[in-house]
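Format is sequence with structure; example below:
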Amino acid sequence: MKSIILVAVLLWASIATAHAKQCYEAQATVKQAAPANMCTQTEKGYANTGKGVLTHDGCTSAKSQAATKLRARLQESCRAYVQTYDKCSVIDVTSCS
C-alpha cells in the first residue's frame, strides 16, 4: 500500500513539474526613508510582487505590476515612495501572468 501511495505522489509531482514554466518575479516596497508625514510606519512595511515572462520586457512588466499593486494599497501621499529592485528573480510557476 505504501508503494502505491509513493508512486502516486511521484507521478503527481512529475506531472505538476512538467507544466511549470520559468518566469520573472519582481518586488516593490515602500522606501524606509520616506517621510513620516507622507507614509505611515505600517505602509513602510508593505510589499507586493509581480510576475512576467522570462525576457527583459517581462522583468520590466513584473516590476510595473508589483508597483501598481502596491500603490493601490497606499494613501496617495505615500505612492511616490514606492521602489522596485534592479533585479528580477527567476521562479517556477504554472503561469507567468
In short: The chain has a mean pLDDT of 88. Residues 6 and 12 are 10 Å apart (CA to CA). The chain is about 35% helix and 25% strand. The longest helix spans residues 2-18.
